[in-house]
Design brief:
four-stranded parallel β-sheet
Length: 135
């Protein structure tokens, strides 16, 4: 089992979609959490709506701060924003997914971001499923 931490700035958009899609696709084979360097107060409504369209509920998401405990838990940290603004994740294998910020976008423009996240998550889950289990 691999622990994957999805990070962005507010933990209200991209990282939420990635975490929830990962949980849906990885089931109980891997764990996922998300966090941000400057957490917002709630997930963006259009992100919740985009996930709802594919059968994923994110209404209970509470943005979390990226801290030492979150990094200690993670085997992999996936940055979902550009390197210039995404938080640093020292000591953890890092993947960079440069995704547009859905914050001010209408639902129609959030859908392609959600779909790209799903594609990337599928690739990651496939990679993780092919690795020997850690003991």
């Amino acid at each position: 089992m691999t622990n994957v931490l999805f990070v962005c700035v507010a933990n209200s958009g991209r990282s939420v979609m990635a975490e929830r899609i990962f949980r849906s696709l990885a089931a109980d084979r891997h764990e996922a959490r998300s966090a941000g360097s400057e957490p917002g107060t709630a997930p963006h409504s259009q992100v919740v709506a985009a996930l709802h369209e594919v059968g994923i509920d994110a209404t209970d998401h509470v943005p979390r701060r990226l801290d030492a405990d979150a990094l200690a838990w993670a085997d992999i940290a996936v940055s979902t924003c550009s390197e210039e603004v995404c938080p640093v994740t020292p000591g953890v294998r890092r993947l960079n997914w440069h995704l547009p910020d859905p914050k001010a976008l209408p639902l129609a423009e959030v859908r392609p971001i959600r779909d790209e996240i799903e594609r990337l998550v599928r690739e990651l889950v496939t990679e993780l499923d092919g690795q020997p289990t850690m003991s």
